[in-house]
């Protein structure tokens, strides 16, 4: 791996204009996955790239695509599909920045944005389309050949966070998207993920006649580097009914009172309750979940990145790929059922060699999930000693309980959750996002 990362972008075959742009962005040394994948993609090979979060996967596929595009910059050249709107926005920003000196046209096609405006953008034949599968599938099915006809001439398809995209959740929309692209023999297909699952590996056994063999690269042994050594994993055994009080005490204790943190929950309702409760307790907090309008989701991320809010309460829409380098603490307020989700969540901290903490709230029902996670990361969690029962009861239980009760009353008054039902009805009419 050290040999790979020792090469520079010129040696990898990137265009001079792109190297100049990377230098201006202070990106001069390729990471291991970039060194391995960029030259092989430039040779025309399909690629599966596996590396932990924060390893530079986006440039590993963007650099060769942009290099190839600059040789013949016309029409729709590449499509990047990714599971969440926020990740799509981040990738679109990176493509736009990398191609800023070359008049690149990048179109972001995600749910929650103006669908007519998106159709008009697609009609102008952007060079790169960064999309969530549901919204692109909607355009393919409903927006007409003038809008999506150019897709049949694209040269690249990228599945970013491929392990998520290849699940049943996205199956129908993904099939629609791929059906509008050139057959696999006439395009390059690039899959990148932090978790190389069996579904991803199955593609290794599907060679395409007339194309060079698929290139697969995984950083070291993925199972052994599931989480970085700079990440400290701890747990707090806790009764379900006082979780909010423990969270408040943890986030305001001496060690973390000035730290940036992401608190992961499993449900949107829990995210909203916690945001309102902590806000009432004068914690600088924002949230990110699927029931928020897209503009609010975007604003929340901007506030968190700018440190206007130091705490982000999020569902797993924030667990994948988002580059928020300043996060010092991840709290698993709810334990995920899939150990790989724990890995993605924890990957929001301890990035690029920095230290970080991941603390899990464990109730009696979570024991089997924790055992599965410890088996997956090949590491035992240690008990956190920063919050104690007596301190929680004495200092904050009453005021946190009061704040939660007032939050629940306000949510009931506002009919929180109605928007979700309205969107569900829309999706049944074909407005999937």
Distance between the termini: 39 Å
Largest sheet, if any? Answer: 7 strands, parallel
- Estimated radius of gyration: 22 Å
| Strand content range | 5-15%
Helix content: 40-55%
- SS field, number of helical segments: 20
Supply the helix-strand structural class.
alpha/beta
Low confidence ranges: 221-225, 427-433
**How many E strands?**
14
CATH superfamily assignment of the largest domain?
A: P-loop containing nucleotide triphosphate hydrolases
CATH fold annotation of the largest domain: Rossmann fold
Q: What is the global morphology?
A: globular
Strand order of the largest sheet: 3-4-2-5-6-1-7
Q: Indicate the mean pLDDT.
A: 88
CATH architecture of the largest domain: 3-Layer(aba) Sandwich
CATH C-level of the largest domain:
Alpha Beta
Could you walk me through the main structural features you see in this protein, from its secondary elements to its overall organization?
It is a single chain. This protein is of the alpha/beta class. It is 42% helix and 15% strand. The protein has helices at residues 2-5, 9-12, 16-24, 32-42, 57-71, 85-98, 115-123, 133-142, 145-148, 162-165, 171-179, 198-201, 243-251, 268-280, 294-305, 339-346, 367-377, 389-395, 397-413, 418-427, and strands spanning 47-50, 78-81, 106-109, 128-131, 156-160, 188-193, 215-218, 231-237, 261-264, 285-288, 311-314, 329-332, 356-362, 382-383. The chain has a 7-stranded parallel beta sheet, sandwiched between helices. Strand 12 (329-332), helix 16 (339-346) and strand 13 (356-362) form a beta-alpha-beta unit. The two termini are 39 Å apart.
């Amino acid at each position: 791996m050290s040999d790979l990362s020792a090469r520079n972008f010129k040696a990898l075959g990137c265009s001079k204009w792109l190297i100049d742009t990377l230098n201006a962005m202070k990106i001069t040394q390729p990471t291991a996955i970039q060194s391995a994948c960029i030259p092989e993609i430039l040779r025309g090979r399909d690629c599966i790239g596996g590396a932990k979060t924060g390893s530079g996967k986006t440039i590993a596929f963007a650099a060769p695509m942009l290099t190839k595009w600059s040789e013949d910059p016309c029409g729709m050249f590449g499509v990047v599909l990714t599971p969440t709107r926020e990740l799509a926005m981040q990738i679109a920003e990176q493509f736009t920045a990398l191609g800023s000196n070359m008049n690149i046209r990048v179109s972001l096609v995600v749910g929650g944005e103006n669908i007519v405006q998106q159709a008009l953008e697609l009609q102008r034949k952007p060079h790169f389309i960064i999309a969530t599968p549901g919204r692109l599938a909607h355009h393919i099915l409903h927006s007409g050949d003038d809008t999506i006809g150019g897709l049949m001439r694209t040269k690249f398809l990228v599945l970013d966070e491929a392990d998520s995209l290849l699940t049943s959740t996205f199956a129908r929309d993904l099939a629609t998207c791929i059906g509008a692209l050139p057959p696999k023999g006439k395009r390059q297909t690039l899959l990148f993920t932090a978790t190389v699952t069996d579904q991803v590996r199955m593609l290794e056994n599907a060679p395409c006649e007339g194309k060079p063999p698929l290139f697969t690269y995984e950083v070291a042994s993925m199972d052994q580097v599931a989480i970085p050594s700079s990440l400290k994993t701890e747990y707090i055994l806790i009764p379900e009914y006082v979780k909010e009080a423990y969270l408040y005490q943890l986030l305001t204790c001496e060690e973390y009172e000035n730290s940036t943190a992401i608190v992961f929950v499993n449900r949107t309702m829990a995210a909203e309750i916690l945001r309102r409760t902590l806000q009432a307790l004068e914690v600088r907090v924002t949230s990110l979940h699927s029931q928020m309008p897209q503009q609010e989701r975007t604003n929340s991320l901007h506030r968190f990145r700018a440190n206007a809010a130091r705490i982000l309460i999020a569902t797993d829409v924030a667990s994948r790929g988002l580059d928020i380098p300043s996060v010092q603490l991840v709290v698993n307020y709810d334990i995920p059922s899939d150990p790989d989700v724990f890995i993605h969540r924890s990957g929001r901290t301890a990035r690029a060699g920095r230290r970080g903490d991941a603390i899990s709230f464990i109730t009696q029902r979570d024991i089997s999930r924790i055992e599965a996670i410890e088996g997956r990361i090949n590491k035992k969690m240690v008990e956190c000693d920063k919050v104690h029962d007596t301190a929680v009861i004495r200092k904050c239980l009453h005021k946190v309980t009061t704040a939660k009760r007032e939050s629940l009353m306000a949510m009931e008054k506002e009919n929180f959750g109605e928007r979700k039902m309205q969107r569900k009805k829309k999706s049944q009419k074909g407005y999937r996002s």
